[in-house]
């Protein structure tokens, strides 16, 4: 997964945050908020061969164009963020090729941890999952203590389990739980190469399609705290591209 443009921002030792296109696009919306509110800048365009073609103008009149897969960061922060704006192609083997290439990119860049974000279809929640909308999932037993993910150990976010019964795997190894509406999130979490030693965790947010700004603000706030950001100092700012995204405001004179 080569850079098409790169200003040589150092990646080694940082955490990589990856949104998965999934239920209500809540992962992408939360990334939009983090990019705009933390003043992150695009420093790399990544290979887009795996995605449905997309292009458009950039936020705030910035020069250049928007592409499906871009990397954002900022000096002084120990994490970088991917924004994915277009789904992966449905044809095989493109999905698995993308996932394999993504793991190679993580390893070759020297990231010390990965945080996956995904929406989950709220209509599939169990009774216990009605108590909170956000859950965490760790697909392996690698210790988080030496990485930016260590905050998840004590963070008050419950562990995610499948809302429906699952058959045990044939080899007896624990499976990644079913994630309804999670796009390729489960496939990514299930595809770690053998002898993988980079901790990976996921934040999963139950949501339904609609006006998901509140979901995005909530998930972005949690991600910021996991990344070590004091959210009391963050001036949350939604991007200009959200204007009209969820419909125009009601004419209050009607009421």
Automatic annotation (TrEMBL):
Quaternary structure, from the entry: Component of the 20S proteasome chaperone.
Xref: PANTHER family: PROTEASOME ASSEMBLY CHAPERONE 2
InterPro entries given in the database record: Proteasome_assmbl_chaperone_2 (IPR019151), Proteasome_assmbl_chp_2_euk (IPR016562), PSMG2_sf (IPR038389)
Family stated for the protein in its record: Belongs to the PSMG2 family.
Keywords, in A-Z order: Chaperone
Purpose: Involved in 20S proteasome assembly.
Gene3D superfamilies xref list: PAC-like subunit (3.40.50.10900)
Record-given protein name: Proteasome assembly chaperone 2
Organism ancestry: Eukaryota, Fungi, Dikarya, Basidiomycota, Agaricomycotina
Keyword Chaperone listed: yes
GO BP: proteasome assembly
Superkingdom field: Eukaryota
GO cellular component terms, semicolon-separated: cytosol; nucleus
Keyword field contains Chaperone: yes
């Amino acid at each position: 997964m080569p850079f098409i443009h790169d200003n040589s921002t150092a990646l080694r030792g940082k955490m990589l945050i990856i949104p998965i296109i999934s239920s209500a696009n809540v992962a992408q919306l939360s990334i939009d908020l983090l990019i705009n509110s933390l003043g992150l800048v695009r420093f790399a365009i990544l290979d887009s061969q795996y995605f449905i073609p997309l292009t458009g103008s950039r936020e705030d009149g910035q020069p250049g164009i928007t592409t499906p897969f871009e990397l954002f960061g900022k000096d002084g922060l120990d994490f970088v963020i991917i924004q994915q704006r277009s789904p992966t192609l449905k044809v095989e083997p493109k999905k698995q090729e993308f996932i394999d290439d993504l793991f190679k990119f993580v390893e070759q860049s020297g990231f010390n941890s990965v945080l996956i974000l995904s929406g989950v279809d709220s209509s599939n929640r169990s009774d216990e999952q009605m108590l909170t909308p956000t859950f965490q999932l760790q697909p392996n037993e690698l210790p988080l203590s030496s990485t930016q993910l260590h905050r998840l150990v004590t963070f008050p976010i419950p562990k995610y389990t499948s809302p429906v019964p699952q058959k045990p795997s044939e080899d007896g190894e624990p499976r990644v739980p079913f994630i309804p509406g999670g796009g390729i999130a489960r496939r990514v979490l299930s595809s770690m190469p053998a002898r993988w030693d980079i901790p990976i965790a996921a934040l999963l947010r139950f949501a339904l399609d609609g006006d998901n700004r509140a979901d995005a603000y909530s998930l972005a706030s949690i991600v910021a705290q996991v990344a070590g950001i004091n959210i009391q100092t963050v001036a949350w700012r939604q991007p200009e591209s959200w204007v009209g995204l969820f419909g125009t405001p009601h004419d209050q004179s009607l009421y």
